[in-house]
Specification:
It holds the Pfam family zf-C3HC4_2. This protein is mainly alpha-helical and about 375 residues long. Among the domains are: about 80 residues, Herpes Virus-1 (2-Layer Sandwich); about 110 residues, no CATH class. Strands 2-1-3 form a three-stranded antiparallel beta sheet. It is elongated and about 155 Å long.
């Protein structure tokens, strides 16, 4: 702990000067009794440690007694021994302290002495350390702080500056200010959060749009791949069968034209595939309900030019020609002009229906649909 003495000890504080030459123990700067002495290695002079530090802080490097550079060293026993024998009065003797202390005990005592002067924070008067607490507890000029409203007031003014009503009003004012500040902070945080949310929303929106485009592109690629795979597994390899007259692509399973597929319901498709067991009623249903309109041309179909957009049109075209030739052979040579009479047309329709379903006409095989179970998928 630092000494209460900024410079050496005053000679009048020494209580046993007899037999001691105090002038030999004086600091050559402050001329008081040495306090925490140090010596110059060059000139052997003695100084208080505080005095020589102050001397050197002014930018000097030379010894106060000569021109040599100051080099510090510890004091010899010739100085330390006489100093240790001195009896020193407390620096607060004027305040009432009666302690007489050895040289080495002075610093510790003075930092704890109960007679240290302390100033009252209210009236600013000085009192000893032992008395200051008693004085402060009763000083009317001491300022106090309310634990509830935090108002600082002097004790003597409490009846005017800190009544119960004033305390409540101040608490309410502080609460309102605090609430307003918290509201401003919340609004600021909300604005920041909203900006961050909007930015994040835009990022997510852009990402979603990109994913949608990628998904659409991938869907097209997958659909194309699936179509290609399906085509590879549903059409016969060229050269496996003889080419059809309709130029259509043959089914890999049955060898019939697979350029058309059925779009109707499963029950109807099952009924069509059972054509070998048809009776007259079934054949009438085929014609009257236009079941053949349920067949649709596949993408990429190579089946030749059609008279109509249904496979029956393609079949009908071939069988009408065949029917006309058959009727012509049954009539006289001079009656060739009436080959398309109403009776002939009825015969043609019956021949077309029977030939398409049963395949028993001499030219029907080239125009027979694929009736495989899976020919309902485009």
């Amino acid at each position: 702990m630092a000494s209460t003495n900024d410079v050496g000890l005053a000679p009048d504080r020494v209580r046993n000067p007899s037999g001691t030459h105090l002038e030999d123990l004086n600091c050559l700067i402050c001329h008081n009794i040495l306090w925490k002495p140090v010596a110059c290695q060059q000139c052997k002079a003695y100084f208080c440690s505080a005095c020589i530090r102050k001397w050197l802080t002014d930018g000097r490097i030379d010894c106060p007694l000569g021109r040599e550079t100051y080099i510090e060293r510890a004091c010899s026993r010739l100085v330390n021994t006489p100093l240790s024998k001195l009896q020193i009065a407390c620096i607060y003797e004027s305040n009432g302290c009666r302690e007489i202390l050895p040289y080495e005990a002075v610093e510790k005592h003075e930092t704890q002495c109960g007679y240290q002067p302390q100033q009252c924070p209210g009236c600013l008067l000085s009192f000893s350390k032992n008395e200051i607490e008693t004085h402060i507890s009763g000083c009317e000029l001491i300022e106090s702080t309310c634990d509830d409203c935090k108002i600082v007031y002097k004790r003597c003014d409490a009846s005017q500056t800190h009544t119960d009503i004033i305390c409540v009003k101040e608490q309410f004012r502080q609460y309102r200010c605090q609430s307003q500040e918290e509201m401003r902070q919340l609004q600021k945080q909300f604005r920041q959060y909203r900006c961050q949310t909007e930015d994040k929303f835009e990022e997510l929106k852009e990402d979603l749009e990109k994913r949608r485009r990628d998904y659409s592109a991938n869907t097209v690629k997958v659909a194309q791949s699936i179509t290609k795979i399906i085509q590879q597994h549903q059409f016969a390899t060229p050269g496996t069968y003889e080419a059809l007259d309709c130029k259509g692509r043959r089914c890999i399973k049955c060898g019939q034209c697979r350029d058309w597929y059925f779009t109707g319901d499963a029950e109807t498709w099952k009924w069509i595939r059972d054509y070998k067991n048809w009776i007259e009623e079934d054949r009438n249903r085929w014609r009257s309900d236009h079941i053949y309109d349920g067949f649709k041309r596949r993408d990429g179909a190579t089946c030749g030019p059609q008279q109509r957009a249904t496979p029956v049109g393609q079949i009908s075209r071939a069988f009408i020609i065949a029917g006309n030739e058959h009727i012509a052979r049954q009539r006289a040579p001079g009656d060739q002009q009436s080959v398309v009479s109403s009776g002939a047309r009825g015969y043609q329709e019956r021949t077309i229906s029977r030939s398409f379903i049963t395949g028993d006409h001499e030219r029907s095989s080239d125009y027979h649909y694929c009736l495989c179970e899976d020919n309902t998928i485009a």
